[in-house]
């Protein structure tokens, strides 16, 4: 009887193990299509156009699209060349000769040259750079997070918000991203004791005001920071960038947001099925994905000086035994996670 039960249990385990295997559809012919990521603003900076191949189902490695001819044309007949960097597929502008201007229209044109077996030319629709209002205020409030940590204490952190308003009513579609930087220390007095970490936002953050009487946004949540990280253990800074979008670009980001941030399945719409604003000149049926974005940008930075109680969970193993410095570099070397170089913009107090 015991042998029978053991056999049944073994069969069940094998069935369960077989069910959790990663499923990759059997695709007879793998097709690669160009993907474009690019943003032109009105700020005096280097603009970047990124070209790569679409990723087949089951693959994760990005394949760059190099050796292309990349130019941006404006409606004043100016042409600005983008040069490929030492990183294949990354093309950059010359900040001394090109800066976007509000009110002008820009068109991306690129040629694959010898990068593919077929030499195709691609072009975006002309995109007007729309003005964007400044961020009125960027601020934070303490927040108690619902739920508890494993040992029963309640999490405390802060929620960062922004307010913005366009009195002209011209800007109705907004997008935001941010860069956060924080100063932190390891729990022991060692040479590499204090460092800085910088992270860029990854989520798509958009909003429109078309259903409102005026273009006013109040208490828009930017990021929620809990005490499960050391972001708020010493000093924290965040700069938020605000962009103006056309209705067409807003629709593109909204569809992409639904794909990347909502729960979906293998058979839901995938990002490469979302139409962008770029087409093939020689063959309109030839696929190309991505979006050439043109937008004015305003930015605002704040510092958070309030020190929030750091979760004991973060450094619990380090604090229990100084010998952990030899086992876990996070305990005794801040450069494992950050850099000793203080950012140029950083102001201590």
Helix-strand layout with pairing:
Blueprint: H1 2-19, E1 34-40, E2 48-53, E3 63-64, E4 69-74, E5 79-84, E6 90-92, E7 105-111, E8 121-124, E9 127-128, E10 135-148, E11 154-166, E12 173-185, E13 194-200, E14 205-208, E15 215-225, E16 235-244, H2 247-261, E17 278-280, E18 289-294, E19 297-304, H3 316-320, H4 324-327, H5 329-332
Parallel strand pairs: 1-18
Antiparallel strand pairs: 1-2, 2-3, 2-6, 4-5, 4-7, 5-6, 7-8, 7-9, 8-17, 10-11, 11-15, 12-13, 12-14, 12-16, 16-19
Number of helices: 5
Helix and strand succession? HEEEEEEEEEEEEEEEEHEEEHHH
Query: What is the count of structural domains?
Result: 2
Q: How far do the termini sit from each other? A: 75 Å
Structural class: mainly beta
Q: Any idea what the radius of gyration is?
A: 25 Å
List keywords for this structure.
349 residues; mainly beta; 2 domains; eleven-stranded mixed sheet; disordered N terminus
Short description:
This protein is mostly beta strands and 349 residues long. It has helices at residues 2-19, 247-261, 316-320, 324-327, 329-332, and strands spanning 34-40, 48-53, 63-64, 69-74, 79-84, 90-92, 105-111, 121-124, 127-128, 135-148, 154-166, 173-185, 194-200, 205-208, 215-225, 235-244, 278-280, 289-294, 297-304.
Task: Characterise the protein shown here.
- This protein has helices at 2-19, 247-261, 316-320, 324-327, 329-332, and strands at 34-40, 48-53, 63-64, 69-74, 79-84, 90-92, 105-111, 121-124, 127-128, 135-148, 154-166, 173-185, 194-200, 205-208, 215-225, 235-244, 278-280, 289-294, 297-304.
- It is mainly beta.
- Strands 1, 2, 3, 4, 5, 6, 7, 8, 9, 17 and 18 form an eleven-stranded mixed sheet that branches. Strands 12, 13, 14, 16 and 19 form a five-stranded antiparallel sheet that branches. A three-stranded antiparallel sheet has the order 10-11-15, with no helix packed on it.
- A hairpin with an 8-residue loop joins β12 and β13 (194-200).
- The model is unreliable at 2-17, 19-28 and 263-269 (pLDDT under 50).
């Amino acid at each position: 009887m015991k042998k029978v039960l053991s056999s049944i249990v073994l069969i069940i385990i094998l069935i369960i193990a077989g069910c959790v295997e990663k499923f990759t559809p059997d695709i007879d012919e793998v097709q690669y299509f160009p993907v474009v990521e690019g943003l032109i603003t009105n700020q005096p900076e280097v603009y970047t156009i990124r070209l790569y191949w679409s990723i087949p189902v089951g693959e994760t490695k990005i394949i760059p699209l190099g050796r292309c001819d990349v130019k941006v044309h404006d409606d004043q007949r100016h042409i600005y060349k983008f040069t490929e960097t030492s990183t294949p597929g990354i093309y950059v502008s010359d900040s001394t000769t090109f800066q976007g201007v509000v009110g002008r229209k820009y068109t991306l044109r690129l040629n694959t040259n010898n990068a593919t077996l077929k030499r195709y030319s691609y072009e975006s629709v002309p995109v007007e750079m729309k003005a964007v209002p400044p961020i009125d205020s960027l601020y934070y409030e303490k927040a108690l997070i619902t739920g508890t940590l494993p040992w029963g204490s309640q999490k405390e952190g802060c929620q960062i918000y922004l307010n913005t308003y366009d009195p002209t009513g011209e800007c109705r579609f907004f997008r935001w991203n941010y860069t956060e930087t924080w100063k932190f220390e390891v729990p022991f007095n060692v040479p590499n004791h204090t460092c800085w970490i910088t992270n860029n936002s990854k989520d798509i953050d958009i909003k429109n005001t078309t259903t409102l009487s005026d273009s006013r946004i109040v208490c828009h949540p930017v990021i929620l920071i809990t005490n499960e990280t050391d972001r708020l253990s010493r000093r924290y800074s965040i700069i938020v960038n605000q962009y103006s979008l056309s209705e067409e670009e807003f629709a593109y980001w909204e569809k992409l947001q639904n794909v990347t941030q909502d729960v979906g399945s293998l058979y839901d719409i995938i990002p490469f099925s979302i139409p962008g604003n770029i087409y093939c000149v020689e063959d309109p049926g030839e696929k190309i994905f991505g979006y050439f974005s043109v937008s004015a940008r305003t930015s605002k930075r704040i510092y958070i000086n309030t020190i929030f109680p750091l979760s004991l969970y973060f450094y619990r193993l380090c604090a229990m035994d100084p010998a952990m410095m030899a086992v876990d570099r996070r305990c005794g070397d801040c450069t494992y996670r950050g850099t000793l170089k203080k950012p140029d913009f950083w102001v201590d107090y």
